[in-house]
Structure formats: structure tokens, C-alpha cells
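Budget justification note: compute hours in this period were largely spent on complex prediction jobs such as the one shown. Inputs:
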Amino acid sequence: MFGKKRVAIVGAGLTLFRRNLKETGKELCYEATKMALDSAGLTLKDIDSVAFGSAPDAFDGIHMKGENMIDSAGGWRKPFSRVFVGGGTGVFTANAGWWHVASGLFDTCLVVAEEKMSSCYPHPAHAFTTIFDPIMSRPLGTTLIWIFALEMHRYMHRHGIKKEQIALVSVKNKKNALDHPCAQLGANITVEDVLNSEIMCWPVQRLDISPTSDGAAALVLASEDVAKKITDNPVWIDGVGWCIDSTYWTNRDLYYPDYVEYAARMAYRMAGIKNPPKEIDVAEPYDPFDYKELHHMEGLLLCKKGEAPKLTEEGVTQRDGDLPINPSGGLLGVGNPIAAAGLMKVCEIFWQLRGEAGKRQVPGDPRTGVAQAWGDLMQYGSVIVLRR
Amino acid sequence: MSAKIKKYAGHPLKSAEIREGKVPTARWRPKAKYMWSAGVAMSRFLNELKNGRIIATRCNKCGRIMVPPRVFCEQCFKPTDNWTYVKDTGTINTYSASFIAGDASRIKEPIIVAIIDLDGASPGMGIQHKIGEINWKEVKFDMKVKAVWKPPEERKGAITDIKYFKPV
Amino acid sequence: MSIEKISDPRQVRHWPGHMEADYIYTHGIAGERFFKEIKENGRITGTRCKHCNLVYVPPRIYCERCFEKLEEWIDVGTKGTIQTFTVAYVDIDGSKLKQPTTYAMIKINGTNGGLLHKIGEANLKDVKIGMQVEAVFKPKEEREGSVNDIKHFKPVK
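Corresponding output:
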């Protein structure tokens, strides 16, 4: 066992994910946190610490967002910290919660993630442009979708992957999201719909991309002794991993996310997983774009490089397939309030392993699941392995 | 969401309700202006662009010739050792054709963007730039391209001193 | 050995730019009701937590201490006490203001919360910590549902 104490997830909460929600970011945080506490049968008095995660302040338009959210995340007069690793923040916040408890420093920790992207007007894409190097990239007018289009195209080129194969991910995830009560974009669409949607930055088309969203998610973590007192079915965090690659993204081969592989290897080593495709029953890789699900399946070592499109075509990644991928509906279907979307994936694995996922439940009594997020300049991976 | 939970928080709004002022809101536009210093390595790089040349730095330990140039090698974690010129030709590593602008609005003629691995730099050392003088549908992976420079009197010491790269 | 450093500052290059950001913030569930009361009724409201016996101004939908949902809204009146204040002589860019402005933290009487606002209709030298002040609202037709619907707080005569 890594760390001084084994750590369990004992509760989870989520708000609706929508393009615009009336609630302030703080109010969303509160709703998710309160739901997580209630589901664990705990009150704020039982909480020793808080790990909070949120993506760039430029989305909410509130500088020092962590400080702004503190009371709504249950942080009043408690050890509170905000962690930030771009799009990888959601899963990394759960990792941060893990070390709060695993270290022996705290018995309980609230893990809260929030994003309110609708504040940024007329579109959060504008705020995204400020992440680029001001000397090399911004003078060219670089946008976020450019860089992902470059990565997607490189991935397709190296393995000879067709758009039709990638579109299947969008079709699957939007369909899965129909069964998710918080989902923003659940839909029955076809491969043709994706291929006929407007071109954004070739090869990226409208239906290849997740939406921008408002929303919040939360977890309650507890040490083994505390968890066993409050629940009969804790879900254990048995592995965490994170890794970042060079910021010189034009000096890397974008066809493969090495950093995700390193993060996965760290988490698998901790969890004693030697053969990921055999030992992992359900996975929630980060899917802000459809190709990213495939890219990340490969980085998570769930299949060989370039093999993920084939598994998708064969139906292996469907909810009732041998290796269900994104049974929640993912970011493509449920929505993408950045940090909250990453944490939503951890919530989904928690519910799947507890057998509480309702219509989304994957068959076969899953025991081990993995969630992963990705961020910064296509360079960061965070991974968490959960077990029942 | 857990099957045990029946109600989920959140009051969805339509974008139009916000735009048309049907929901009370507060508006704010930050006045955030910046002057970004290019620093030691990139200032030299930009000054060289003004001369119509592309310069890189070399690390004598790992032997990499790096562009964009940097004062330290991030892999060996030591200062870089020499300046060295690389060519203004290269190959297309990956590319895209963008039909949208920074604010997500649509543009008619797509901008072709690419990562170009420069000749004379270590393999895989690319820079980001645009591709011109070709229809986007004709662009290919591994295509040889060459920088098209602005006339010397129009160069400012910026990455845009190269207008774009065109097929050789 | 390492590459030579720049010794002539004129050789350092810059790229100017700005963050093109524009924001629209929803008032949220609590904020919407709070500002509606100010705009339509010239009333300051708060929410009460009966467990902790606290009244939040500005109101929130939750108690930060016990985390219960707050549903009890109360009219807290318009009077408060100056907790602390400052007099601003320069604006945000550091330019001198024509007229110094007094900003105070005003605890609304009978509550555990307060508002940051301007003090008006008072001589600068008369403003004191502990002073009783009351909200002066703009005329109803000028109010737009913002904190500026309160013009300022003035000393209670």
C-alpha cells in the first residue's frame, strides 16, 4: 500500500451541466458539495480538509477563484487548497484529496470542482487564446481548436485512421448521455451527422467537440477506519498518477500522449495492475474531442497504439461491450465544465463500482475502474484507479 | 448520477435570456494590457528573423539543436551552449485548416496552420506557422515547404516577419 | 559554456497585447432575489440560518458553517454601523480624484453581515468608526438591480 492510510470515496455529488446556469459558481459548488455530503451521511463538521479544483480564472472571470469559492466548497475555517493543472484539474483534484488523507494528515477530505464558462462573453474560446506563448503563437492568431486539430490530424496520419472511425466515439457518447440525468447534449446521432457537421478546423468538425458548460462536482474521501464506520460499500482509491510533458509542444510528436502513459503506469504500479485491458472493467478517459477518447485509451494502455478505433468499431467500448468506455456519456455527451467534467468521470466510476449507475450501469459487476483527464498544452495527464 | 438521487440542482437559462437582459446580470470588461518580454533567447531569435534568418540553440550534452531557441536544455537541465542557424525550409509534421477565428466566429477562406519541422534542427523540432500559396485540400503530410519572408523594411522582429511557408 | 546573454537592453524584444475578455455574470439564485428587493422595493434582505442563528447579508442560499440550505428571507432594514472606513484620494490608475471618496464596511444592524459601500452627505472629518448610517436609494426609475441602486450610506440624524 502506498501512503500511510488507505483512502475511500464515500459520497459523490453533481449538478446539472448546461451551457448557461442561473446559479453563481459558488451556488453550483454548494449544491454539488451538499449532495456529496448528504450521500455519505456526513455533515460539514465531519470534514477535516478541502481540495478544490478549477480551470483558468479567465472562464469564470473571477480572479483567485479558489478564494472566491471557499465557503461554498465547505472550506470555512478549514485547511483548504486549490490545485490547478488546466484540463487535467478534475481528476488531479481527486488525486490531491487522496494525498490529504493517505498522508495520515486528515481523516476526511472534500474534493470539489467547479466551472462557470458562460460568464465569458461571447464565447470562452476567447479566454483560451491567452494560454498561448505570446511571442511564438499568439501573433499568428492561434486558437485552441487549431492545436487540437493539429494533434488529431497527426494521430490520424500516423495510424491511417479515418474520420468515420473517430465519429463513432461521438455517436456512442452522446447516446450514452441520454441516460445521464445531468447531461447537456445527450442525443441519437449518426456517423453521417458528424461528418456533415460544419468544419471548424479540419479535421475537427462541430460534432467532434464537447460543448462549453457550467457545472460542479464533488466527492467525499475518508480514511479506511472512518470509511468502514460510515458505509458498507466504500470505493477505494488504489492508484493515482500524474505527469507533464514539455511545453515546447511543436517539438513533440503529437500522435501519442506519452505523459498519459507515464501517469497511468504510476497509478497502475500503485494499484498492482499488470495487464490493464484484462484487469480494468470500466474506464472514463477524457473526451473533450472524440479522437481524444481513442488517444487516451492508448495512453492508458487499454489497447495497443493505433488500435482504439478498431475496438470502437467492433463495439468493445459500448456500455455492454467487453471494455465499456465512457458509459456516462463523457464530455461529448454530459458536457464540459472543465474541472467539474474531470471530476464527473471519477463520480461515474464511483457509481459504476457501487452498482448505483441506474440505466447507465455496465453489466458484469465491475470491480476496477479508471478515470483520466488531460490538459495544459496537450501535455498533462492525471489518472485515478478505483476498486470496490 | 447515482440512481439513488432523484433531483439535481441547476436552473438552465437560454443564451438569449441573458443577451436580452431577461435575467439580471452584471457586466465587466477587464482592462488588461500587457507587454510581454521575449527574454534572452527569443529576443535574439526575433532579431535574427528581422535579418531573414532562423536561429536555434544547441545543447552539447544531448546534442539537440533546438528551435524555438532557449537558454536552458529542459531535458539535461543545464544552460545551452551555442547559437546555430537552421534553414528556413522544412517538412510539414501536421496541419489543419481553420474556418473559425479566435472568438469562435466563422471565416470564409480557411487559414492553413501547420507544425513545420525545420531543416538543420534536430528531428521533430518544429515551429508553428501558416501555410500559403496552396489550396488547403492540396496540403500533404511530409510536404517540403519554405519560408516566405516579408520584405526587410516591413520586418519588425516578430514571428510574423515570416508571412507563411509555401510548398517548395 | 553557455550562450551569451543580452547586455544591450535595446536588443530585448517585446510583443504588446491585451486579454480580450468580456464577462456577463448571472446574479445567481440568492443574488437575483436580493437585487430584485433593492430595485423594486428599496429593501435590503438577508437569509437566516436557524441552526447557527446567523443572518447573512448579502444573502446566500447556504450557511457556510453548518452547510444547511437557507430558505428564510428577512427584511433587515436599511441601517448599519461603520465597522471601518478609508478615504480614497486616487483612482484605480493612481490619478488624483477631484473629490475624495469615503468607502466603508457597514455592518447591517441585527445581522452578521454587511456591505461595502460609499459614505455620502457627511463631512469627511465627521466620519467615525461605530457611526450609525442608513442606505440612500436612487429614485426607483433609475434603479437597475445592482449594488449601485444604493447611492450611498449617510449618517443617521
